[in-house]
Structures are given as C-alpha cells and as structure tokens.
Predict the structure.
Amino acid sequence: MNAPDRYERFVVPEGVKKVSYERDTKIMNAATFTVEREDHTIGNIVRMQLHRDDNVLFAGYKLPHPLQYKILLRIQTTSQSSPMQAYNQAINDLDKELDHLKSQFEGELAKHTRDY
Amino acid sequence: MEGVSYQRFPKIKVREVKDDFMKFELRDTDASIANALRRIMIAEVPTIAIDLVEIEVNSSVLNDEFISHRLGLVPLTSERAMSMRFSRDCDACDGDGQCEYCSVEFYLRVKCLSDQTLDVTSKDLLSSDHTVVPVDYSDASSSFDNTPNKGIIIVKLRRGQELRLRAIARKGIGKDHAKWSPAATVTFMYEPEIYINEDMMESLTLEEKTELVESSPTKVFGIDPENKQVTGKCMIVGNPSAPPGIPLCGSRWPNMIWDYASGEIPCLFFEKVIVVDPEAYTYDDEVLKKAEAMGKPGVVEIHAKEDSFIFTVETTGAVKASQLVLNAIEVLKQKLDAVRLSDDTVEADDQFGELGAHMRGG
Ligand SMILES: [Zn+2]
C-alpha cells in the first residue's frame, strides 16, 4: 500500500540535481560528488578509472543505503589537478574506451557472421 | 586545463554467436568495466513487455491478476525498444502510455467451444505492431521434443470458458521489473593462467599424477595421450653411470626406472600431465590442496588474469545476444553522459572558489 513506486530507483525526481558537488572544507583539492539514482555500475567504473589518474590521491565511492538511490563519490587530488578535473577526465576516458569497445565488438561480429 | 588521458583500448574476440547465445573474450580492461556491462545487460537494457491489461471477459480458472502477470512475463521481440520512449516521459500522450511512440497494443480473444481442452498461448496475442510480437521459439533446434511449437501457454480453457482482453506493452528495464530483462544469464569469468612445474611433476609417479589430475572436480588436467604408454625401446645414447654395455634412455627425466636386463625400457615416467581445458577450472583450489597434501606445493600454480574475461550471454529472445551487448555499451555511454557535471554546478563552484580564495587571502 505505501510501497514506493519502483521507478523511484532510477528516475531523478523533479528539482533534484543528477550530480551535485561539495568541496571539502578542511582538505585542499578534495570533494564529494553526490550522484542521484546511480549505483555500483557507475560508482565502480568511475572509481577505478580515477585510480588510473596519477594526480588522484584518493578516489572512493559508497552506496550509503540500499533504499537511498544515490552514490557518494569522494576524490582528492594533488595540486596539479582538481577533483572536478579528475572527474571529468575519468568520464571522458571511459566514454572513449566504450567507443573503442563498440567498434572492436562490431568489427569482430562482422568477421564472425561472415564466416558463418 | 586538459589533463592527460588514461584511456584503455580493450580488445574483444568473439568465440561463438547464435541468435540467443554468445561467448566472447574481453581483454585489456578491468573487472569494473566487465561487471558494469554484465549488470547493464541484466537490468538496464530496455525491452518491451506487457504492462497494462484490461480484461473484458475471463471465465477461465485463473483470476485476472494471475493472467495479467503471466502476460507480462511473455518475452516480446524488442529491437524497437532502444528507439522507443518510456511512457513516463512521452509527451505525445502526456504519459498515459497509450500512443505509438511509447506503447504497443495487443488483443487476445479466445473461447473454447469443444470438449477438448484449449490451450491459450502467446501465439493468440494479436499485436498492433508487426515488429513487436511474442518471441517465436519454434526454430529452436531442440532435438528432444518434436512436438510442433505452440508458443507459451498462458491458461487452459474447458468447454464454454472464454478469455477476452486488451493489453498494452511498454518499454521498460529489468531494474523496474524482471519481466523487462532481456537476459537469461550473463556471466563472466577471469581467464585462468595455469602453470605446471614440469621438473617437479616428473618427480611424481604415474599414480600420483593420476591422483592429482583426478583431484580437480572439473576436467582441467589430463594425461597427454600422445606421450602415454611409451613402452617401446627408448632412445639409446649411452649412460655413463650404467653398467658397461647398458644403454641410456635419451629422456630428460633422470629418475626413470631402467629395465637394464631386457634392454627394453618401459617408460613409466613418460606420462605427461597437461592442461586440457583451463576454462573448466572453477577456482576451487582442489588441485592446489592435493599438491600440498602430496608434499609437492607449487607443482601446479594457478592465477586469474585480472584483465581478461570470458563472457557468456544468453537472452530470452527479446533481442539477439550480439545486439544485447551492443545495447549495453550504448546504455552505459548514455549513463556516463548523464553523470557529467552540469554547467551550473561548475559555475557555482567557480564562484565558491573565488570566495574561498578571497576569504583565505583575508
Ligand atoms: Zn506515449
């Protein structure tokens, strides 16, 4: 009866920002990104991509509670970069990786369907 | 302020493709990408499924809700799903979900008029869109049953019973309800790297080797059939430590049992343990434990290659397996795009930054 609608798990409510950003007040170049309506799928790939960045000193994510449909992503960088720059870079790199993956897959698939 | 790129260039090797099944290797990336793709294939690639049912007549033995639920679970061909709209954000019908951009209409009208039980199946569903129809499993080459395919049974009717209804199918994702999941199973495994220490292995007797090979619950190891039962004469070159006139086997294994008397050498140690199928390994550690128990730790070493994955994808038939993978990549790209920082977030921070600098500066 009072069960929340199932779509609440993946539809961002009106007036809520998909990604919000909060600087750490005590640590330089550290910030927390709150990503609404996302889970381990996005959290983990972004975190792992951030770990490849030499300027990232810390990157971690958490899903605070299974019924709170958001993730918190915390990033600390060296002074050469900034959390925002690292975040953008990670997303761009992942996006390019997926473009590459897609063309690889299509190429392989074409090869395979031709043989058979 | 453009940073250095840390992009990877993963590789794919397709091993097998069928309509509803495929197997491929994914290399040069990490588990986070592999797992993201798996999760998306299961829960976030959209398909079309019946979501609303208006029952006109139902005198069958199953109640309305039961039948509606069964209808929802019928897989529908969903090539259109990626380009369709979710009815909740369709502006052509104000979200009531009954227009051609976001829905497909179905009718089902069946009445039993004979004494023979009548099966109402997915084939009785009449679609308003010929591209969105119940999945046809008839050409699935199932050799074990030769009965003509009649679709998925929804309910059975006896004489006089009738079922009449209208159903609306909509686009959705598995995260909302499993009926929208296009995946039957999606799995990936790390590719195992199995190393046999040949020298140590040759210090084992044939019995011990067999024991080791058989300790694995899956058939990962075997005894090389090529080298098995070499009972003929050995390559003879002359053995410095053998009695004069007795030849030496050319084998590289020093502890071979020589039958000097006959001159024939039964090569008991010639049986070679080989890896038959590394992917049969389930990371159960049984061989490693056995090796340890035999006092030969390290005779076999197994590592998971952390950047190589073997995927198995099976679909319900709603989309082709190969299309499911492509759709998953596309959905992941869209998700990444959605989590990009918006301009106002960046701006707000720039102002904050200036304010912070100002405050710090005193
Ligand atoms: Zn609509």
Summary: The CA atoms of residues 209 and 330 of chain B lie 49 Å apart.
